[in-house]
User: Which sequence fits this backbone?
């Protein structure tokens, strides 16, 4: 299967921890908390600017393409707390586990994402053509984030006070690699509602990677993004909740999770590319409502519909929530006819206030 032709291909710099979380943390009175957050924000801003400058001219992917194989091709590197990417190669595909747990977790997470895409949707890697999956661990000092830069995954170790090692959450790995999947398919613009859809696609498939790897049905999943990343001192469960946006954390340092759960509370802002990490809670909850209404495994019927739309020809790069909702309705009709799936899709979008007609 060949990747869909790119029109104005623009890989973006996407992080798992939103800027508003780090900004709040950077204002903490304790310099042991504010310092790493401030350095992470500054580093991310610089990397984001570099990414934008290198993609001003429409281009095609420059990453080497792999082979059409049913096996992943994983490459793991160790940055040794520096910022030069990719770092020092420490594990290749098929090699035995190392003594470094971060390397082994990243290796497993890259493989789990590849396996979900192949077994559930028949797609070979994020580009559909066996693209090698590259990950670098131990990035920078006390780096409070993980990101996909258009070519590879990068993991920080966290500061140990607020955030732990970013390889501990398999859905974070799935989330970031899905930015690559989106990059090679719909190439959703990273601003406003299309940017929030971009983030939501990553939360959806990141959660599906976790559910698939654990063998969890929709009713047994926690629907949390980044569970296990927050240090014990933090009052919270995760970075985001798809089931109940706005409830993932409520902490004296991080503040309260600001995600809206419906269009009634849609946040209009110029920050974070128009609130892409905030308003993604709305389509996230729509997917959760659909998956739990249908029951069974979320990566099957619900995930299949989202995958159909993301990889189909109808989703424009500047699509808004209503555009995406309408396309999921059409996908349900095409794949399942006038059945329970169609009604469940319409109801899910209706509950979050997004028109799908």
Assistant:
């Amino acid at each position: 299967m060949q990747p869909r032709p790119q029109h104005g291909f623009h890989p973006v710099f996407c992080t798992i921890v939103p800027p508003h979380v780090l900004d709040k943390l950077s204002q903490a009175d304790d310099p042991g908390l504010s310092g790493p957050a401030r350095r992470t924000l500054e580093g991310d801003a610089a990397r984001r600017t570099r990414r934008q400058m290198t993609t001003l001219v429409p281009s095609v992917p420059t990453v080497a393409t792999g082979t059409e194989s049913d096996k992943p091709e994983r490459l793991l590197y160790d940055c040794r707390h520096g910022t030069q990417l990719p770092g020092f190669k420490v594990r290749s595909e098929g090699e035995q586990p190392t003594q470094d747990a971060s390397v082994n977790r990243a290796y497993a997470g890259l493989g789990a994402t590849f396996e979900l895409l192949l077994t559930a949707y028949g797609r070979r890697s994020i580009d559909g053509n066996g693209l090698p999956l590259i990950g670098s661990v131990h990035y920078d000092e006390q780096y409070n984030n993980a990101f996909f830069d258009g070519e590879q995954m990068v993991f920080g170790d966290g500061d140990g006070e607020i955030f732990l090692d970013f390889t501990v959450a398999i859905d974070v790995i799935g989330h970031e690699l899905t930015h690559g999947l989106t990059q090679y398919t719909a190439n959703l613009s990273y601003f406003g509602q299309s940017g929030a859809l971009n983030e939501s696609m990553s939360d959806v498939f990141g959660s599906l990677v976790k559910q698939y790897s654990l063998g969890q049905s929709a009713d047994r999943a926690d629907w949390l993004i980044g569970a296990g990343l927050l240090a014990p001192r933090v009052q919270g469960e995760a970075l985001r909740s798809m089931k109940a946006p706005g409830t993932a954390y409520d902490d004296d340092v991080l503040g309260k999770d600001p995600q809206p759960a419906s269009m009634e509370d849609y946040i209009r802002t110029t920050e974070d590319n128009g609130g892409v990490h905030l308003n993604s809670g709305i389509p996230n909850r729509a997917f959760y409502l659909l998956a739990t209404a249908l029951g069974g495994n979320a990566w099957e019927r619900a995930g299949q519909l989202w995958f159909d739309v993301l990889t189909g020809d109808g989703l424009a790069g500047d699509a808004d929530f209503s555009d995406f909702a309408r396309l999921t309705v059409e996908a349900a009709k095409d794949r399942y006819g006038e059945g329970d799936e169609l009604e469940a899709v319409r109801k899910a979008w209706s509950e979050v206030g997004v028109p799908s007609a």
Remarks:
- Confidence is low (pLDDT under 50) at residues 1-8, 54-66.
- The two ends are 31 Å apart (CA to CA).
- The first strand starts at residue 14 and ends at 15.
